[in-house]
Amino acid sequence: MDFGNDGQLTVTHLSRLLRRRRISPVDLTRALLDRIDRMDRHLNSFITVTHQPATAQAKRAERELARGEYRGPLHGIPICLKDLFYTRGVRTTAGSKILRHFIPEENAVVVDRLDAAGAILLGKTNLHEFAYGATNLNPHYGAVHNPWATGRLAGGSSGGSAAAVAAGFSVASLGTDTGGSIRIPSAACGCVGLKPTHGRVPLGGVIPLAPSLDHVGPICRCVEDAALVLEVIADRDPRESGSSRRSGDRFTRDLKKGAQGLRVGVPRQFFFERLQHEVHDNVMAAISVLEENGADVCEVDLKSMGETARLAGELTVAEALVYHWKWVQKRPRDYGADLRIRFQEGLAVPAFRYLQAQELRRAYALEFEKAMHKVDVLAVPTLPVTAPRMEDDEVMSGRAKENVRMAMLRLTRPGNLTRLPAITVPCGFGAAGLPTGLQLIGKGNDESTVLRAAYAYEQATPWHGMFPADPS
Known about the structure:
Helix content: 25-40%
Distance between the termini: 21 Å
CATH topology: Amidase signature (AS) enzymes
Number of domains: 1
Number of helices: 14
């Protein structure tokens, strides 16, 4: 059975066929494993491929479906995981040399939930080392290549997950997002990437970067898939004091209500500065589509956003050093150069700077709350540029050059500082045939509205049905 890289390789489509037994989870899983084996050498999206366990899970799903024991939309669906999630009996490297041989004895909370839903694990995907970067240039496992153009960055840190989904190696994936690590690669690779509200999805069993900024969320091929995956993984974990107390939400309930009456805010400051012209034009066209379909669009004020990069950097390195302290002291040479330098610089930052950053972070959150008082979502670009070339250190952002890493993080970090839900959806292509992304930011714990707005835009445009040619 051949499953090509087209718009039919979605949870939404495949789950109906699987439930009706029109296709076999075993055939589907074997077909995707075969695609990975044949084509991933061009992308390097996987660190570990779980051939035998995936086949065993698929056979179990086939038996259960034959008996009418349907577990839900993910039953029999092959997925992958960023290699940051604990997986019992399967190595979890975090893209590092330090954890190259680490095999957890338990699953992450969300992995147990996916397993209970009947999902099939194809493998663990490549990432920026310890999720601490936006390029996915990994010194230990190699770089992840963008499936739209293999000489371009896939983005990070969840680059392997986004590349695998975009290339049709996996139906969906889970990533993590500390400064944009779900949304950045999703936009660069033409996928849908959702960062839920902080605490909505439990972090138990996920190797941390900066816990106060870390989020877990889905990377998918369409908005409805993201909603379906979120319904499985989003629930309170009683072991986490900061996890959301809301549970049992149906994120698909209001998904198809359309854009009519949605209030969409467009902040001209910060988010629309220093953009490549095709990014600016595509995002403005996307906002016009929402307006044409009934959304009320207005400008909002978002001032004083200029220090988000410094704040996010100070918070991240301070919290990351807590987890990495023993290795920074004893095994510094086992880190890639970029992390080693970042940790060394972080050691010189006094503790009061972290506390000051937390205070300023709260001010940013209040600024967002004020800006969103009269709107439901903000509509902004996800990335200011299309995927840079892998060898580039700088990229043109508007009329000025900017460091690649800083450019790729610039427009996503506010969503982590404020902990608000945010999604990226494909919104066209640049001159080089590379995807651009529309980012929608919502109110806390209001993923339903974010998904509704994203779905309304997606269904009014053709981009969600366009995927790259098979890599060769």
